[in-house]
Each structure stands twice: as C-alpha cells, then as structure tokens.
C-alpha cells in the first residue's frame, strides 16, 4: 500500500461523504432560510419555530433518500473491503 492509494481512498471517502450529506444539508438549509424569512416578516421569534420545521424536513429527506444513502454506503464499504487483499499484496 503506497501513499497514492491512501490518498485516493481518502478522496473517495470524502466525496462519498459530500454526496450523501448534500441532500439533507440542502433541504435543511432551504427550510431554515424560509423559516428565517417568515420570522423576519412576521417578527415572531420563537425558538421552536426555527427548529421543528428543519427537523421534520430532515426526517422526510431521510425517509425518501435513506435507501439510496444506505445502498451507496454499502457499495463503498464492499469495494473497500474487497480491495484490501490487492492493497496488501
């Protein structure tokens, strides 16, 4: 196992992390922006008004994209485990 292989593995892992977390982060960011605009317009500054919609949006995204996220992670782990003998030998 040389340094190039380690760097490639690390890059692939970071890209997978970014790919899997992007849907949840994007939806929560959009919902947070909408709630902030609503709070600024109505001048209602309630802590739960900012938290609950983001939580519900995150749960909805996990319910919709969860199987895709899980299968992507399983494929990556399977490829990583299968590449161990080639990396060592």
TrEMBL record:
| Any matching Pfam family | Bac_export_3
Any GO CC annotation of this UniProt entry: plasma membrane
What domain of life is recorded for the organism?
Bacteria
Q: Which cell locations does it reside in? A: Cell membrane; Bacterial flagellum basal body
Q: Does the keyword Membrane apply?
A: yes
User: Which parts of the chain span the membrane according to its record?
Assistant: 12-38, 50-70
Please give the chief subcellular localization of this protein. Answer: membrane
Q: Does the record bear Transmembrane in its keywords?
A: yes
* Swiss-Prot/TrEMBL keywords: Bacterial flagellum, Cell membrane, Cell projection, Cilium, Flagellum, Membrane, Transmembrane, Transmembrane helix
Question: What GO biological process terms does the UniProt entry carry, in alphabetical order?
Answer: bacterial-type flagellum assembly; protein secretion
Membrane topology field:
Multi-pass membrane protein
Family of the protein in this entry: Belongs to the FliQ/MopD/SpaQ family.
Report the protein's function: Role in flagellar biosynthesis.
What is the protein name given in its UniProt record?
Flagellar biosynthetic protein FliQ
What is the scientific name of the source organism?
Answer: Comamonas antarctica
- Gene of this entry: fliQ
């Amino acid at each position: 196992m040389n340094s190039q292989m380690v760097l490639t593995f690390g890059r692939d892992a970071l890209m997978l992390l970014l790919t899997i977390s992007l849907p949840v982060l994007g939806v929560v960011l959009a919902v947070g922006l909408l709630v902030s605009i609503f709070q600024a317009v109505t001048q209602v500054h309630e802590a739960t008004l900012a938290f609950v919609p983001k939580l519900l949006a995150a749960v909805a995204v996990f319910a919709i994209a969860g199987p895709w996220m899980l299968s992507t992670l399983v494929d990556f782990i399977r490829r990583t485990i299968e590449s161990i003998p080639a990396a060592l030998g």
